[in-house]
Amino acid sequence: MSSYQAANSTANSVIIVLGAPNDNQGNLSDIALSRCQTALKAYRESPQSKLLLTGGFGAHFNQTDTPHAVYGQRYLISQGVPETAFADIALSRFTFEDATLAIAIIEKLQCRELCLVTSEFHMPRAKLIFSQIFANLALSYLEATTPVSADKLQLLMQHELSVMDREKANLARFADG
């Protein structure tokens, strides 16, 4: 039994899968696929959970006419996840928006437990944001392995460090209302 399954055994749990790039034909990037595969494993261990996928449109991750989250849902459905397992999608453009746009969806589901799925390089920033915005929920975290070279992973990690101050400022503004 995974730590997710043990910690999240109620019908009021949500697995939130943060978006990553897709190409102009809607094919998920390796990073997006890795996140979906990690979420799929968690869902199979806890099938009463709802899946909430994030990602709308943006020049840096999705320039198609279909929301990124829909591509993720299609992939998960192709892997056997029933359509009824999905919550509404969050049409977000970036990590902070992933969290803020998920608030209403999670409240509608009366969620008490939230499992955040993202890549290991992205987790420190995502955890900072989600742990403050969803401080009233039981949170767990699942890191998807990033299928890139060590050099590319290092660049991704450097980017994440470079935006932490911005996210702290976003959180301060959010807390101030």
What does this protein structure show overall?
The protein is of the alpha/beta class and 177 residues long. The protein has one domain: HUPs (Rossmann fold, 3-Layer(aba) Sandwich), CATH 3.40.50.620. The protein is 46% helix and 13% strand. The protein has helices at 3-7, 30-45, 68-78, 95-108, 123-133, 150-162, 164-175, and strands at residues 13-17, 50-53, 113-119, 138-144. Strands 2-1-3-4 form a four-stranded parallel sheet. Helix 5 (123-133) links the parallel strand 3 and strand 4 (138-144). The longest helix has 16 residues, at 30-45. It is globular. Residues 14-148 form the DUF218 domain. This is YdcF family protein. It comes from Shewanella pneumatophori. InterPro entries: Cell_Envelope_Assoc (IPR051599), DUF218 (IPR003848), Rossmann-like_a/b/a_fold (IPR014729).
Give a quick summary of the entry.
With 177 residues, the protein is of the alpha/beta class. The protein contains 7 helices and 4 strands; from the N terminus they run αβαβααβαβαα.
CATH homologous superfamily title:
HUPs
User: How many individual domains?
Assistant: 1
- Largest sheet composition: 4 strands, parallel
Strand content: 5-15%
Descriptors:
Rossmann fold, 46% helix, globular
Topology, element by element:
Blueprint: H1 3-7, E1 13-17, H2 30-45, E2 50-53, H3 68-78, H4 95-108, E3 113-119, H5 123-133, E4 138-144, H6 150-162, H7 164-175
Parallel strand pairs: 1-2, 1-3, 3-4
